Amino acid sequence: MNKGFTGLPINIFRERIEKIKQELLKRDLDALFSFSDEYRPGYTVYLSDYYPINIIEESPQGVYISRHGDVVLFLGSINAQTAKGISWIKDIRSIEKMSLFFNKLKEKEGRRLKIGLVGEALLPVKYYYKLRSCLENHDFINADDIINKMRQIKDLNEIKLMEKAAQLGDQAIREASKRLREGNVKEVELAAVAEYTIRSNGGNIGSATILSSGINTMKPTWRPSNKRIMPGEAVLIDVNPSLNCYCSDVSVTLFNGRVSKEKQKLLDLSKEILHGVIKYIKPEMPASAIYDYFLEKVQKVGYEKYFTPYANGFRAVGHGVGLDVVEWPNLDSKSNFILKPGMTLAVKFDLHGFNFGGIRYEADVLVEENQCRSLNNIIYEDL
Fold first, then answer.
1. Domain architecture of the chain: domains with CATH
2. Binning pLDDT at 50, 70 and 90, where does residue 310 land?
3. What is the DSSP string of 60-112?
4. pTM across the whole model
């Protein structure tokens, strides 16, 4: 029985290692080294089933996989002690002694090593400096795509975990909504209600809660403040729970108390557009169709200037979601990859720049064989 953090069967992890092994042979690489940490854990939790914690040491995690199928887990010394009772990987070592391990491999091969690196953007410079003398051309070979492509398609076990995480996100928003209706509450207090709901139901906070009100909703991101939420103000709630390491990313916008017909119409339109794109998405479509759908809808009602400034660049209208709240692939006007069954995406519709602030609706969606469906129910509820 697996004691790992995801609870997934051990054979799933062994199958992942075998796929990586075959890819290493195709690319003529000696090994793969995958790196991440507590805050962006996906690249290594996907392989080790261990989720490190930042305590009196940092929380680095590295997984080494050779072309022969050897697997070594590298962690900080304290996390390494804990992982021995959790990860399915038996060979667990201190990451601070990693250079000794790689130097022995170099001596054994009689040459510098060809190592594919996953997590290039995450690897601290100090570890790179420790290893580069062992590497061919003194450098790693970027291999993010190997695990990105594997993680992009979720199996049935992963989808079940993501459904549970989505339900937890829904419940966190429901509880925050109830507290908002009671009145006299600050942004930070409302965020605490949402996060308490997540924690008290066995979840973790996958990434920072965004909770803004009034003019603060003008900005696409915001750290909850001591600002008191006033009657009639817009309230943007964006929660990111993690349950068994799998995440949800869900957002709604509410108004505190009575709302004008104009603002209610804007809320209804935003929900309608998000509902519509979920019905519209089908497998074998280019991912850019999501952006195109949103743009067409806002152009019809004259709201393009409230949409396009916030829908360009990274995470423009969404992103992949799974072991990380935000993971590959990116969703924008240039996303030319094809939607495939098993993909899980956080699809995000933003309108900002109104005199009262802005609106966001976001949901996790699953691409299925013939359709797409939302994993979140909260976007269909009247709060």
1. 10-151 (3.40.350.10), 156-380 (3.90.230.10)
2. confident
3. -EEEEEETT--EEEEE-HHHHHHHTTT-S---EEEGGGHHHHHHHHHHHHTS-
4. 0.94
